[in-house]
């Protein structure tokens, strides 16, 4: 009988990688018979130091296996914009990811694939292989509400957020001015906007969405997701709030300790789980 495996495919950034590793730990805790394989895509941009962290996790958590994908040279004219790199590089890796998943499936049954929303391009691969595919939204429930709602907002207006100059009504999120929207999605003609929009469209078609939050922290947003109000014209995939995902047991390497803010330095000197109380 074949073993069973869950494939995790994070963006190479350290913040996304650490959160995905914590998902892997949760999966193994609740389903110890499952193997967890994390695909590591080579970074062609600054991602934070990940090598030491990966080596430490490999030593301390043998239930998680890292599979490094081979380096692929970028086309000479490839954009240097961060979002073009973050979304575009995984697209170049689709043939490699396809071969990797096929190879793994020959020795183990792939029960599910969990994609970081930045590696959205791989959804076409997992879909072609008919693998249950989940998305991991590394931020909270409120952000996920806006993310899932964005295709409907795109359809119902012809203006970019930067040109709206009005307050937005996004299900699950307090009214906010259009000028507060992230720069990456403020211009509907930009590549980054189109990448995020496509990721949101595919996310709605997935087997489910995982977010780094919990109900008590974001009750309004969490209930909105449960009620399926973020996708007005179609079904909402199951959403799972599994946070807070916090690194445990491994030291995340930081090459910039000397430049660390004095507030963080002070916090690190305090006892574990200690509480600050105001005087007077």
Automatic annotation (TrEMBL):
UniProt keyword annotation of Coiled coil present: no
Protein name: Putative UDP-glucuronosyl/UDP-glucosyltransferase
Keywords for this protein: Transferase
Organism annotation: Helianthus annuus
InterPro entries: UDP-glycosyltransf_plant
GO molecular function (one): glycosyltransferase activity
